[in-house]
Amino acid sequence: MQSKTPDEDSPNILLLDSSTSKKQFKIINNTFKKIITFDINSDRILSEKNFSHIVSDDFLNNSESNELDSICIDLCQWYNKNDGNELLSYEKINLGSLFRVEFHNFLIPVIKNFFILDKLKNLYPNSTFICSGNLFQIATKLGMNSIPIDGKSSDIELTWDKIQYNITDSISLKISKDNLNKLKNLSNVITNLIIKTKTNTNHKKQFALIEFDSKKYKKIFNESNNLDDTIYLYNRHRPIFYNTESLNIIRNSNVIPYIIPKHSLKQLKSNIDLAYQKLSFNLEKFFTNENFFSNFFKFHNIELWTYIKPNLIKIFEKKLLDSIHEIEYAKSFLTNNRIDSVLLLSESGFTEQIIINLAKKLSINIILLQHGLIIDNPNADNYNKILTGVQPLDSNYFFTWGNISPKNTKKLESKTETRLIGSPSLDKLHTQDHRKPKKPNNILLLATGPRNHQSVGHDVNMWKKYESMIKSIYDSVLKHNMTLIIKKHPDMAETDFSPELYSDLSSAQIVKNDELSNLLIDAKIVLSLGISSGILEAQMLEKPVISILVDYDVFGSTEYISNSCLETTLEEFDHTFSKLLNEPDSLDILVQKGSKKLNQNISNIGFSSQILFDTMKKLQ
């Protein structure tokens, strides 16, 4: 559609988001009745230019935000409707399910913008809305009196279209999936040259680690040397190794990285081509039921389907060939190597879903290994199962950390059997030196911001509040002549701090991918802003932990954190922090409290990797 010249006498409202070009941002002026920004980046740009504006989140309340989260979980499972399990499946794997997490994350800002724009349409019926490209597309679907700033809109970018590649502890790059595949191919070549990739068929049992990081699970890789069984590493999403340390861990272990033989690729090509043609035809057939999907994709009686349909088709077509390839690769791996058990860290990942479905057909044991703190609020069940995949739906066994696991995992609806294994990721800290810190003035802040897979992660006001909390903590620490080290969450999708916050934190050390244990050793006190599994690592190293409650943990804190840490609010933090520094005995009591709860709730501390393999070997 051609751009129109707005009537300058009309009450124009300017709507901006990140799809607005830098050129357009430069020519924005104050002649508009209102300027409304729809995401963090556009808000930051206008704030930097000192333009008065409103953030779109002002038109959304907490109840509506929670509704939005709930509907997005429902809608991301669109593939189960309209005979999807028949039409969209390959090897009985529904391909729509494979990217449900990415599609869910795509839906959150889209449906949020639909809802807010519909409100604006009713609030300002006589206004003309001048919109950035993406917002204009939605505005036209809502029948708003709208004009595009230009005819451009940004391409769809899903969560895993760009991957974080860690070069060292402190250096990482965000690269496209195409470039990641090139790096993976290079790592495969190196793997073939310097790491054993063939197996001894006389070994008793065959196990597979699915999408494991050798650095994080170093003890599992080390423990493999004590086994006479075959252990494969099947990494398709993450590289087999990404730096010298991760490479050496694999080289010095008995774990065999699986690389698809070239001759298998040629044999699979004809199957893949036929499947692609059939599924492309089925996709067309699947979406012919316009009436059903128009009713399914609705929020507050707002019809979403005409906007979502072309985007969903584009996403599916983009994922289709890769999905078929990965299913064929996984099938070849599981059948040719006669795998007895597969070990997963999540049920919702792309590779993991494929492995689960094929393993079921082949009667292979499916084991879900707990790898982080699980939110124990019953309202988080769908979040835990559908999105994060940390609670079992399809696994035969759930290997948990111990009593720390949510009570509802002990009453699983599925036939999953629970085993208390412990936390292999904590094993490496068991023998760590608990010496006094060399830098006794260091205070470590574990900073976990609003999550992007919840609507709160797209809330500009909440993100500003998060940054103001960090600034307030920094001021308190600085007031006591201490040094604040801020460890950001490693999630590559998490929004970066604003330039203003970086400037305000001039004396702080801010890191993202540094090894947490190294930071913990030199910390006098550990602070946690938001839920973090790093709390347990701190307690393993006998550090006192203060947990600061935040609004953006929408399901609240966990029972373990509440019982093992000193829990406080931001308003009370300065007083609590000062009191601890002035009363050394209080620090010792807090350390003892954390250590006691850790030992009561985590099984087999230091030996869980050994228990893990012992338990796997006994499974029938």
Using brief descriptors, characterize the structure shown.
alpha/beta, single chain, 24 helices, about 625 residues, 6-stranded parallel β-sheet
List the helices and strands and how they pair.
Blueprint: E1 12-16, H1 22-26, E2 34-37, H2 40-48, E3 54-55, H3 62-75, H4 84-87, E4 89-90, E5 93-94, H5 95-98, H6 100-123, E6 128-131, H7 133-141, E7 146-148, E8 162-166, E9 172-176, H8 177-194, E10 206-210, H9 218-223, E11 230-234, H10 244-251, E12 255-257, H11 262-286, H12 290-296, E13 298-299, E14 302-303, H13 305-336, E15 341-344, H14 350-361, E16 365-369, H15 381-387, E17 397-400, E18 417-420, H16 424-427, E19 442-447, H17 460-479, E20 483-488, H18 499-504, E21 509-511, H19 516-521, E22 525-529, H20 534-540, E23 545-548, H21 559-564, E24 566-568, H22 570-582, H23 584-601, H24 608-618
Parallel strand pairs: 1-2, 1-6, 2-3, 6-7, 10-11, 10-15, 11-12, 15-16, 16-17, 17-18, 19-20, 19-22, 20-21, 22-23, 23-24
Antiparallel strand pairs: 4-5, 8-9, 13-14
Helix pairs in contact: 3-6, 11-13, 13-14, 17-22, 22-23
Biggest sheet, spatial arrangement of strands: 12-11-10-15-16-17-18
Overall average pLDDT: 88
What structural class is derived from the secondary structure elements? alpha/beta
Largest sheet: number of strands, sense, barrel closure: 7 strands, parallel
Low-confidence stretches: 1-9
From the N-terminal CA to the C-terminal CA, the straight-line distance is 63 Å
Backbone shape: globular
Percent helix: 40-55%
Question: For the CA atoms, what is the radius of gyration?
Answer: 26 Å
So how many helices?
A: 24
Q: Oligomeric state of the chains? A: single chain
Total number of strands: 24
Percent strand equals 15-25%
